[in-house]
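Summary for the lay section of the report: proteins are chains of building blocks that fold into shapes. Here we show the chain for ChrA protein and then a coded description of the shape we predicted for it.
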Amino acid sequence: MKSKIVTWLELLLISTRLGLTSFGGPIAHLGYFHEEYVRKKKWIDEKTYSELVALCQFLPGPASSQVGIGIGILKGGKFGGIVSFIGFTLPSVIVLTLFAIFLGNTGVSDAGWLKGLKIVAVAVVAHAITGMASKLTPDLTRKGIALLAILFTLLWGSAFSQVTVIILAGVCGFLLYRKQNEQTEQHTHSQFPISKTFGTVCLVLFFGLLGGLPLLKEATSTMAVTLFDSFYRAGALVFGGGHVVLPLLEKELVPSGFISGQEFLAGYGAAQAVPGPLFTFAAFLGGAIGGWEYALLATLAIFLPAFLLIFGALPFWNGLRRNPGMNGVLMGVNAGVVGILISAFYDPIWTSSITSPLHFGMAAILFSMLMFWKLPPWVIVVTGIVAGSLFL
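The coded shape description reads as follows.
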């Protein structure tokens, strides 16, 4: 037991350090993890790490957080996964919760620096689009799937449109790319200390909550249950990384009056300035709606699907990867995600943030700093705040 406690404390220490220093988004996080856990600590070999990354890219939810949880499980069992998650996530949760409370107490909704943060969100999402589109839609077929996803989500303004797009894109990917995937190479096997029984329970719980929470919301009509359902569904249905959670949460929270569109985008801009996973944006939203208690509720709700899926999928991953249609489904889903992201970029991000030539010029400068000068996101955030304070 003593050795386990030492392992858990070491996991907590290292993951907290990563949570304090891991700027740059999920791809950068995977680089930090590789440097720390594969090269320095040698807790996981290259093949196992690449397989774990592949699994987490396949699952919905925050991929970098799920990789961290998986490494924690491999090193310290189930509790090791929890400890690893807490260390990596808690620093940004605390900062964004405090920012939400500060924003609510100061009443600075028209401040220039806040408008600057909204324009930061434009630049960051535009940068995410270019990177994801080049990687996830390399051929004309997947570009076509992305284009149809744009049209579908823009013309059908429903909370269910994104989910429908993901399902249809997955079906298209299966039909169009399954033969291609039958020829893929064989993969190595990785063993994680989780039984198939425990994994099955987690998967049943994942789908049970996904279907049961909306019914519970209708039966109780309490704000806590309503918010838990909204954040849980966002965490359960997001493929492609944290940026794609934006349209799902915006559709859930802004029209319902839980938070204003301006506050929503300001918090999203602030989330770019902190290290750790972008899903901690939920802490800001919960804090803006109801203080630290709702920040904690929102954080638990949006990350719970990630836990249930990684715990549930690890025991079955080797068999899943041998299924010839699974990679095809993923290829189609990723193309659909690109379309969803472009749709969200237009509305609400662009339409509510870029309303003058000056706004467009600022967004172009911030985008260029990210895209061409390769400056870190926190520099973009600081620049947006300063420029907004001076000129807006």
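Put simply, here is one thing we learned. Confidence is low (pLDDT under 50) at residues 182-186.
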